[in-house]
Amino acid sequence: MLVRFWGTRGSLPVAARAATIERKIARALVAAGGQRFADEAEARAYIASLPDFSAAHTYGGATTCVEIEGGDDSFVICDMGSGLRELGIDAFARCAAGKPREYNFFLSHLHWDHIMGFPFFGPAFDPGARIIIHSGHPDAEQALRRQQEEISFPVPFDGLRAAITFRTLVPGQRYDIAGMTVQLIEQYHSHASYGYRFEGGGKAVCFSTDAEHRIDDMENEQAFEAFFRNADLCICDTMYSLAESVSIKADWGHSSNIVAVDLCQAAGAKRLALFHHEPTYGDEDIERMHRESIRFEELNRGDRPRLDVLCAYDGLEVAL
Ligand SMILES: [Zn+2]
Ligand SMILES: [Zn+2]
User: What pTM does this model have?
Assistant: First the structure.
């Protein structure tokens, strides 16, 4: 399986400002200490050797959109955040090289940050494309039509030329879709959200965003442990720190890095990707949370195998 992260930010797209880029360049130049680089390749090799990701990179600012390859030749896409626009551009190039123009979407839920990319998804305007939108919500079509009503957007939903169908999935069932086995689980979130588990070729990926896990609800936690069981990768909502998620931001419908590590360890998952980054966090803040998560994983591991903790960024690809 191959997992591509096209959008990893939560709630609202953000972009690095000029001052942020300037600070990164200034710090990298100071750290280089007068070294000379013959060409761009040498300079990039130096950047790759820097210990901090945030020194010369950004986690990105597009909202949630993740592509999973591993079933048949059709596209499998989780969520339609603003990262979907870039995926659409890339999809045109891949389809020109022969990939079928069939797109399977799986929606965590219908909040704006998870559907806002669809009106900008180029293949939706392609009369030769087939789009199937799977969701746990029976009102998914209503949400997508509403964001393209004339008061909000110039092109109506019926102006899209692709053949678009909606399919409601039910938790507890196993579905064979796009050459993979797909299951879903209801999550605690405003208007509900759904986590997905995709299995194919002996590998399993869980996509679980916008999910609040409550320390006082053990029954629910056990259901998630079972859902994440032995997954090769769990993509989890880690919008807040633990302190925030149990105090001021309790009931906001999101989880912390600590809860995600704990759940993935209990489930015997192999990798965790921190995801749905808080829009007010800068790259250094997200990297600090990543380091804390790795440290907590070590402290909490006991005699269990190591959980590899990744921090998702726009453009990250993970081969399983
Ligand atoms: Zn969200
Ligand atoms: Zn949400």
Answer: 0.95
